Automatic annotation (TrEMBL):
It catalyses: uridine(2552) in 23S rRNA + S-adenosyl-L-methionine = 2'-O-methyluridine(2552) in 23S rRNA + S-adenosyl-L-homocysteine + H(+). The active site is at K161. One of its GO terms (cellular component) is cytoplasm. One of its GO terms (molecular function) is rRNA (uridine-2'-O-)-methyltransferase activity. It comes from the Bacteria. InterPro entries: RNA_methyltr_RlmE (IPR050082), RNA_MeTrfase_FtsJ_dom (IPR002877), rRNA-MeTfrase_E (IPR015507), SAM-dependent_MTases_sf (IPR029063). Residues 28-204 form the Ribosomal RNA methyltransferase FtsJ domain. Belongs to the class I-like SAM-binding methyltransferase superfamily. RNA methyltransferase RlmE family. It comes from Povalibacter uvarum. Specifically methylates the uridine in position 2552 of 23S rRNA at the 2'-O position of the ribose in the fully assembled 50S ribosomal subunit. Gene3D superfamilies: Vaccinia Virus protein VP39 (3.40.50.150). Keywords: Cytoplasm, Methyltransferase, rRNA processing, S-adenosyl-L-methionine, Transferase. This is Ribosomal RNA large subunit methyltransferase E.
């Protein structure tokens, strides 16, 4: 089947993307790994021994970064509706984290501990209808915030990808009510034409 012009352009851009090439070289599963690496360098989010939760983790680019930094004494609890191959220092739970059975599995994996950090690089399946895609993306980040409010350690941190558009400003205001400080980041690995930004929320008020 012939590719559309847009998919052909995306493929050419993807193949020549320096972050794609670097990910292959460094053994990361996705170019998105470099977004978390930059956020971590700027905001000092992940440290050895931490308990980190990764929402919407597949294919595992962010889990790989977090797993390497937390080390043997730390742990990453990752979850996604899609399957994900094993990552060192990462416990993966497949399913919808808003489903009660999956949520209970997550709580069981956490045990008595609360995450020091929750990271979310979730994006919806794109339909091509801008308003519907924006609504879907906002729904997902609202669910991620809800999870953070339920399980995050007091003074813990939260990182989430947000697509700028309808609902994003009110979402940022909502995040500010639960955290001491909220910064907006646009990592170098985030394509300039993309509407995605990353919220780095520090100091969960519990």
């Amino acid at each position: 089947m012939a590719r559309s012009k847009s998919s052909h352009r995306w493929m050419q851009e993807h193949v020549s993307d320096p972050y794609v090439k670097q990910a292959q070289k460094d053994g990361y599963r996705a170019r998105s790994s470099y977004k978390l690496i930059e956020l971590n360098e700027k905001d000092r989010l992940i440290r050895p021994g931490m308990l980190v939760m990764d929402l919407g983790s597949a294919p595992g680019g962010w889990s790989q970064v977090a797993g390497r930094i937390v080390g043997e004494k730390g742990r990453v609890i990752a979850t996604d509706i899609l399957p994900m191959d094993h990552v060192h220092n990462v416990d993966f739970i497949q399913g919808d984290f808003t489903d009660e059975a999956v949520f209970n599995q997550i709580l069981e994996a956490l045990g008595e501990r609360k995450p020091d950090l929750i990271i979310s690089d979730i994006a919806p399946n794109i339909s091509g209808i801008a308003s519907a895609d924006q609504a879907s993306s906002m729904y997902l980040v609202e669910l991620a915030l809800d999870m953070a409010r339920k399980v995050l350690k007091p003074k813990g941190n939260f990182v989430a990808k947000v697509f700028q558009g309808s609902g994003s400003e009110s979402y940022i205001k909502e995040v500010r009510t639960s955290f001491d400080k909220v910064s907006i980041r646009k990592p170098a690995a985030s394509r300039s034409r993309s509407r995605e930004i990353y919220l780095v929320a520090k100091g969960f008020k519990g």
